[in-house]
């Protein structure tokens, strides 16, 4: 069984965090909250999201698993004002999700979870550098890099103690360096990896500008981006595989 | 003769109410105010609009009839700020309408009224139910229904004393029930009719969110939507023909 | 050498003033400030822009000439908030312009000035009328004229002491008359010229609504539009060639 009430704003940001990577996903309805793990069709970007029962106005669940059309669910949640309450209730027999917003009832047919791409395991990586950075700085770097290239290098210069972003186009370059004073925190180890800008832009869309984002980086390794949602009662981790360095 | 001054906002909402259904219309320039009746090319949606002489800052007319290109007239009115005054004067000889906004003069060629689709008579129907509802609730229902279907059922359950909206899609459904407490007023009789969502969406665009809309409904009968404009010095009635119920 | 710091807003409006006419331009980096002159590919619209050294937070230059991709430079400047400072520094060896916004560094490859269309000389014309008018009145006239025609007549009636704008369409006309009271200033001589609306619309986009624009007009002569930027520490002059009067 699953029955919950949540502020529209929280539901919307939860769905958006996953929706930037996939159109359908499985949702685990655990006793302690919901969890979503998904990987994009090309196996390049992954997301692991949890939203605790405390993030809801009320929450009851006993461990089910549902498959949903995220695009449709985002549209429905988007009809509510951010402060409105959204009621969710699973009808186990018909496999439909009843969504109710101030008297308006929406019945959403669920998708067989078996038919949805398998959930990824986000590997535990031992990455050399940890950068804690504001969402708005990621946004600036990604926006600028997009003007010159379709990939972006993220790295840390251990000796200088700086985190850097580089994008090299055919004629123009973009470069950003942030040291310990510009960042919320920096644990510097030698690190440098190249990423597809498309994916990073999608993830960037879901990162609030005022979020504290913990970024873990290595040498030609995936990057992990971690930030809290729902005032700390939920969390999102993105992982993005590197591209092979072009020389 | 026709000579009038009106606040831009009032002219704009008047024209928009008719413009959602037709591109050209006839305007009756009566002593007591203007009146417009029009029906869309498919004969499905009708509008009857009146704007009293009192809704104008000044008004003089003696019963003429003009034909106008509504799209063009909406564009012209749209150039004015909502608080600006728009002066209208008919040149009977040249059959042109002079529109003046803060010194800017626009000369609009009129259309021969004979060449415009005949005006409809909105029939007097004896409909079983009367629902008085806020414009914003119509907006919610229409927006949600559009997510699942291209038609919408409006009805009243006499026994339960509720007005309901239903839309059924291939997989998902939308349902809204409003009882006497949720509505401004309800005179309940058995009623249920199916309508094309396209038309209702167009009419919805012209209904202010805070308007009190009087809706009259019957069993497989047209729906009538009536609301005031210009702080009660004008009124709009829409009538929409039903679709045949699909079973 | 060239090294300067300028508020983003000033750089943006400077680039926009030229960008409405051309995609590439030469920039003179003189001791006293920068100067740009450009003519559109059809040789119909010209711009002469100067921005004094005092308009910059800091400025050092010794007379160089660079060629830039304006579209690209506008994009870069557009990333900054209007109050942010933009640092510009020319690397003479690599012929690249370094643009730095709050730590973000953009390296822009310059264009060989020889490859850019030759700079025009804005001729000194002896025009009969001078009209000083608010930017917002130009905007109203141009917007209204565009509804009926693709050209616009600007003129002065010396006897009546009025500046007028006329646009004649196939069926509708637009007319605006402004006398000495409606204008900031008027030196009336007989004047009347016809212009392409496209160009005037482009120029209009770059004219602030609250700018005092000095317009010089003659009989079938080009029009000159002059206004200050950067609180008087810069200036823009547009010149637009007339069309042959159609009779």
From TrEMBL, chains A, B, C:
Record carries keyword DNA-binding: yes
Domain Proliferating cell nuclear antigen PCNA C-terminal: 123-242
GO function term, MF aspect, one: DNA binding
Keyword field: DNA replication, DNA-binding
InterPro entries in the record: DNA_clamp_sf (IPR046938), Pr_cel_nuc_antig (IPR000730), Pr_cel_nuc_antig_C (IPR022649), Pr_cel_nuc_antig_CS (IPR022659), Pr_cel_nuc_antig_N (IPR022648)
Gene Ontology terms describing biological process: leading strand elongation; regulation of DNA replication
Gene3D superfamilies associated with the record: 3.70.10.10
Stretches assigned to the Proliferating cell nuclear antigen PCNA N-terminal domain: 7-99
CDD domains from the UniProt entry: PCNA
Annotated family: Belongs to the PCNA family.
Summary of the function given for this chain in its UniProt record: Sliding clamp subunit that acts as a moving platform for DNA processing. Responsible for tethering the catalytic subunit of DNA polymerase and other proteins to DNA during high-speed replication.
Subunit structure: Homotrimer. The subunits circularize to form a toroid; DNA passes through its center. Replication factor C (RFC) is required to load the toroid on the DNA.
Protein name (record): DNA polymerase sliding clamp
Native source species: Halovenus carboxidivorans
């Amino acid at each position: 069984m699953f029955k919950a009430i949540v502020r529209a704003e929280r539901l919307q940001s939860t769905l958006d965090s996953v929706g930037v990577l996939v159109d359908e996903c499985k949702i685990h309805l655990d006793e302690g909250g919901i969890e979503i793990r998904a990987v994009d069709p090309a196996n390049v970007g992954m997301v692991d999201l949890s939203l605790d029962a405390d993030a809801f106005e009320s929450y009851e669940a006993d461990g089910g698993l549902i498959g949903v059309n995220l695009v449709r669910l985002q549209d429905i949640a988007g009809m509510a004002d951010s402060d409105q309450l959204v009621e969710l209730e699973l009808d186990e027999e018909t496999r439909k999700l009843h969504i109710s917003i101030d008297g308006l009832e929406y019945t959403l047919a669920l998708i067989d979870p078996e038919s949805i791409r398998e959930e990824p395991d986000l590997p535990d990586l031992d990455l050399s550098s940890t950068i804690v950075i504001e969402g708005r700085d990621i946004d600036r770097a990604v926006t600028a890099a997009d003007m010159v290239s379709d990939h972006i290098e993220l790295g840390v210069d251990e000796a200088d103690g700086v985190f850097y972003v580089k994008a090299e186009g055919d004629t123009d370059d973009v470069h950003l360096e942030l040291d310990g004073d510009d960042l919320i925190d920096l644990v510097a180890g030698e690190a440098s990896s190249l990423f597809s800008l498309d994916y990073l832009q999608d993830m960037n869309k879901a990162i609030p500008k005022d979020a504290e984002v913990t970024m873990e980086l290595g040498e030609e390794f995936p990057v992990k981006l971690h930030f809290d949602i729902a005032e700390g009662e939920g969390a999102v981790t993105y992982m993005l595989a590197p591209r092979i360095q072009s020389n």
